[in-house]
């Protein structure tokens, strides 16, 4: 089923998802958006009294002149303004290091993932669960049970800078920092007033946006009392559901129903490829208003008023009466009648509405000591529509059903049958609505300052943070499967009426539903099968953190002051969630009522909805940890340069999995060559299993798998595993930085090589992978599924996580920038040119399941790991005016590195090495244009055009019905216009 693809699975490691989700690392991105790490790390000039220390997110050390070995990119508030995006997430996520991040264009065809509308970062494609996102160096209450924060809930107008640490940082910050850290730093001394208003719209007259933000700050009582606050509202209308066939939203015309047609493995001894990339993929198991799919009447479809007609199969195919079509391979033909397809219907960009209020009150009770209280209240609403209608296959319709046209009833008699099999898109149902609301309340009470101990000044930071996120998911316009099945099985009643066949269903209020043809729907029947209160889930996430950190320079080595940071932290995470009784079943706390119990058709175990069967659950864990970090200067010489060694160790104890140790060791050498620095760091990092993996409530979603060449509808059961252990990663980076060499002023260059290996990765294979392994003979996996039942809603595949996988990714990041005052050439203004590129050399995943092989996903454009990804920018600035031209480039790739491309004389296809006729997937180049104009000292007007040439996304075919596009890499909205004004007083 279309609406479940790309849901929960992308949070797990499997061949079709995380196997191909590594992203390349880069120091900067989005044109002239970021400042190089070396700028953030540069020591203050000698005698500069305004700078006492430099705080770098990649380390806990706060020390003047400290240079850390882990690459860190700093994006300033000015850089964010140039990006001109309605949500700061959309500005930061353009960085090449951030691939696999979620957002409003991802998970839009999902009902049950819990990730819809969630803005979360993924560094190096390792997934949001392996990237730690912080606010002022502090953890933020997760927005779902997977421990992922929603950046849309952060205050945005008061952001001073965003530090992106593109390397392992668990020794400094704890779990989840395998890919790195993204730290949002607020302006704690802001004074005055500023505001922003922005509006926008796409070329297709949709995705209209409105942004209104205001921030204020002032100091009182001789600057001892400081009050800062902000309020924000934004609305992005999104691009909601398209239609059936190839009718896309807003009149877009790039969807061509791409798919991969699959022949049975046993048929590949003829030298032809097993997989064939096609356009115009026709689903042969259903039509928009009904298609008979088996028996002597196979191939008859139903149209206006229920009138039967001969369905036009693609590929010149003809039904064989046994469910197959000559010239086609289930489930696709090529061409023919495409009107019942649902691939064009999912939302391309979710509707997103943000309301955020933030406040900070601080009081200096000494020259260097401050007490503070911050509060953050945020509400983020999203809406996505996974698909129109609700495709059903394998329905049994009795010939005596009064809704069956007379001609078909007569044909039943002629062919001596009493029923037939039918599939339908349920074209009269309209789109399914998934409404998600996330409400956060967060409070932080803390103290910062410094004290002199034994002649050394020590800075301290202590705080207690408490936050709660309440998540509500409400799904509308969706059916209860038992009632649907009963309602479509109708018979003639007394006095010319039509009634449900099952007397038990009739007694419980069953109203017959006519799904045969394009006919007017009975409101009472729709109300029966599609109750007003659809699937719902109510979750509450709680996080409590108490932390104490100190940093100072207690003694001096032969090369300089030794800096030390140390700290303790205690944290508790817990959640509780309940579903509605139809999905959750007979539990005491989900509103289970006598009305529900009065309907004997409903399963007491739940799972009654077509999709969105949310289940209740709860769980908690706590963690205690302490760390020590030191920076030791080891060289200071006019002839040999300067060097320092940085190391850290952290001991952590989890209530669920016991003790674990993380560490890092690195160094930086500032060579005697002007501007040339070398850096290297290696670390042991972890990701502890989150609440979702440990204590996930059972989640049942509909899915379709191919079993021995036949498409089978299954229930995909996802459950937690409380025996999971932390993932262990080894992260190594080696880099060179050349900043402002004497021979080329204004030029900077950096290159960094990275190598990350994750052992014991928590892995849950996709349902199709499990089925393939079962077919290949893995009996253990076969025991976790049932695929041969003929009873509706009984076939299933159980998905559970284990510490069985291994991942390893290697790559190189390159950056070059050149700044030039054009007056030197007799021209006005200044010019800045920047080029960034990331090459993913390898991303190999071993699932850990017997019978599988390592999967190489570098260069797989169906995922988010292109071989090369680059951003370029050219900025011209003159007095009050600036213009910037941006280019975003993705290299060509493949659908799968394990595929063997061939047209003839192909080897026999296997589960591990399938043959395909075309394994090439094109890359893309997008051009953006932006500009600003300072009307006066207080007012700035700006504009931005994204995807200036309205480049269509590249087709992304899969072996199932899908939207046929990869939003992780490709633009799905099209040309987007925005304009706004900023005020400063």
Automatic annotation (TrEMBL):
Keyword Transport included in the entry's annotation: yes
Family classification: Belongs to the TonB-dependent receptor family.
A single Gene Ontology CC term: cell outer membrane
Origin species: Caulobacter zeae
Signal sequence range: 1-34
Location of the TonB-dependent receptor-like beta-barrel domain: 428-948
Protein name as it appears in the record: TonB-dependent receptor
Membrane topology: Multi-pass membrane protein
Gene3D superfamilies listed in its UniProt record: TonB-dependent receptor, beta-barrel domain (2.40.170.20), TonB-dependent receptor, plug domain (2.170.130.10)
Subcellular location: Cell outer membrane
Motif mapping: TonB C-terminal box: 968-985
Domain of life, per lineage: Bacteria
InterPro entries per record: Beta-barrel_TonB, Beta-barrel_TonB_sf, Plug_dom, Plug_dom_sf, TonB-dep_rcpt-like, TonB_rcpt_CS
